[in-house]
Amino acid sequence: MTMDLFDQSPPEPRAEPICEGAIVLRGLARESGAELLAQIERVAGQAPFRQMQTPGGHTMSVAMTCCGDWGWVTDAKGYRYQQQDPVSGAPWSNMPALFRILAADAALKAGYAEFEPDSCLINRYLPGARMGLHQDRNEKDFDQPIVSVSLGTPVTFQFGGMRRSDRPGRVPLEHGDVVVWGGPARLRYHGVLTLKAADHPLTGACRYNLTFRRAR
Ligand code: MD3
Ligand code: FE
């Protein structure tokens, strides 16, 4: 066998189990990072990033926008999915084909065939932003997985158990990493530690996370 020291092909993404039902596909979205960021800008042109209010009256440190048929929103009335942007009253923009293809490919690699998300929540973290431990339970069918794509500066992700009080483990997530969680991991508590100041060539100080969901 000949050694090719100049092989330019990207390394095969490594799959690392986090816990039963959750897997990290390291670098799966790295190649498409720039195009994903261009699509995030397009979506945010229609529905600008906003820091929403929790039902308890706190302003989230993470700014959010959505695309697809259903967008996740929170305000004094609670957490829910809805078809209109509460800021403009207009429908969310279409989910870009690249988003749908990436989400379906990641889900398939994790063992979920034919994942067709109808919602993409886009989170934007600036230094100091965090997301406390929570469960994602506003979706209709917990048999459907969730796919998460990290872009920009690195962060430490927390994954706990089925109770908020279960001591969480930690996973570092970098630009291009994709997490798929379903089955026994679908309702685990999870969160994101405070984002540290850093400089990424494509996003500056920013971290973005896309979560693809089947809301209905
Ligand atoms: C669950 N977003 O928007 S979830 C959210 O980085 C949200 O912004 C996170 O939680 C973010 O609701 C990314 C990624 C994730 C990874 C591993 C898990 C969730 C998990 C393992 C078990 C359970
Ligand atoms: Fe979540």
UniProtKB/TrEMBL annotation:
Occurrences of domain Fe2OG dioxygenase (ranges): 116-216
EC numbers, comma separated: 1.14.11.33
Keyword Lyase belongs to the record: no
Leading EC class: oxidoreductase
GO molecular function, one term: broad specificity oxidative DNA demethylase activity
Matches recorded under SUPFAM superfamilies: Clavaminate synthase-like
The UniProt record lists the keyword ATP-binding: no
Stored PROSITE patterns: FE2OG_OXY (PS51471)
Keyword annotations from UniProtKB, A to Z: Dioxygenase, Iron, Metal-binding, Oxidoreductase
Cleavable signal peptide: none
Cofactor (UniProt): Fe(2+)
Cross-referenced InterPro entries: Alkb (IPR004574), AlkB-like (IPR027450), AlkB-like_sf (IPR037151), Oxoglu/Fe-dep_dioxygenase_dom (IPR005123)
UniProt superkingdom: Bacteria
PANTHER family the record matches: ALKYLATED DNA REPAIR PROTEIN ALKB-RELATED (PTHR16557), NUCLEIC ACID DIOXYGENASE ALKBH1 (PTHR16557:SF2)
Official protein name in the record: DNA oxidative demethylase AlkB
The organism of origin for this protein: Marinobacter azerbaijanicus
Taxonomic lineage from the root: Bacteria, Pseudomonadati, Pseudomonadota, Gammaproteobacteria, Pseudomonadales
Record gene name: alkB
